[in-house]
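Supplementary Methods S3. Input chains for the assembly prediction are listed below.
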Amino acid sequence: MATSPRATSPRAAKRQVDSGRGVGPLRNGVYLDFADSINRLGQKVIADRYGNLFDMYDNITGENAYKTPMRIYPAPHYTMGGLWVDYYLMSNIPGLFVIGEANFSDHGANRLGASALMQGLADGYFVLPSTLPNYIAANKLEKIDENADAVKEAVANVNDITQRLMNTNGTKSVDHYHRELGKIVWDYCGMSRTAQGLEKAIQLIPELEAEFWENVRVTGTAGELNQELEKAGRLVDYFDLGRLMCIDALDRNESCGGHFREEYQTPEGEALRNDEEYTYVAAWEYAGEGEMPLLHKEPLEFETVKLATRSYK
Ligand SMILES: Cc1cc2nc3c(=O)[nH]c(=O)nc-3n(C[C@H](O)[C@H](O)[C@H](O)COP(=O)(O)OP(=O)(O)OC[C@H]3O[C@@H](n4cnc5c(N)ncnc54)[C@H](O)[C@@H]3O)c2cc1C
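Predicted structure tokens for the full assembly:
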């Protein structure tokens, strides 16, 4: 989420959107107006700093952002958090390693720009090439018996979900429900959240999931390459993930990084943290369908780098 030269922080930009100030025909969007900065610093300085962005914008819109404000839209494009992993990038399931955006490890409450790809590179290039062979060398990997109860149960579970999805034969597409879920998470667990909104989302998501199981339509068959079925399978997981994101956001009564609770902000509208109570990683354990996941708190200890509040000003 970029910060406009006019708006002092993402929150201010969002308030600008909500208040309708500075918003032209583009509803729910924000303008990035570089006029003041160009007057103050000169176009060359701005071009040196952001020239590639201006070129990309011109290619996409045909508009010269040195002359007219840039139209931007806040869009979630990275998920803070992820699967818990240890120092070797192994999850709590022995032998399952998780790298890149799917793990929780590197970024904390808000990641720095351009650092996600760096993390993927570090995980894939430096960490895993040493930790995975270590694991294989140190553990006797038993041959998996296809007739083992656990294997049969897992296969039966996947077949059951696949059949349920194929047999529902409803009237609405997978994309319809994916969009509906995305809207609930965006509206109530997006740029800013409130306890009331999060409680509503935690109620709405299971209702939408129940409707999905009654009325989704997955075209094609289960025996062929079927992208609709693939998407439906992922959406089943996203209902759990969306609900968990809301539960976690409701449990964390502070604002920190990408987690902004409207109840916890400074008079200037900046994030109000509560380090005394919330300096920990929240690791949630799955406790069964529809059950409240179990919270494990992993304390964060800052030995060399002092914990400090980030200013967007
Ligand atoms: C619009 C946008 C702009 C970004 N800009 C930047 C930037 O400037 N700098 C930066 O550092 N980062 C940026 N990021 C973030 C960065 O792109 C991602 O964090 C990074 O690509 C994650 O890489 P990954 O390999 O961990 O996961 P992904 O790239 O998400 O790859 C996961 C793959 O797994 C596949 N998959 C998922 N589920 C299944 C399944 N069940 N079965 C089989 N396959 C599956 C997916 O199809 C996907 O191909 C941006 C992201 C977006 C969306």
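The chain is about 45% helix and 5% strand. Residues 77-78, 100-102, 114-117, 120, 234 surround flavin-adenine dinucleotide (CB under 6 Å).
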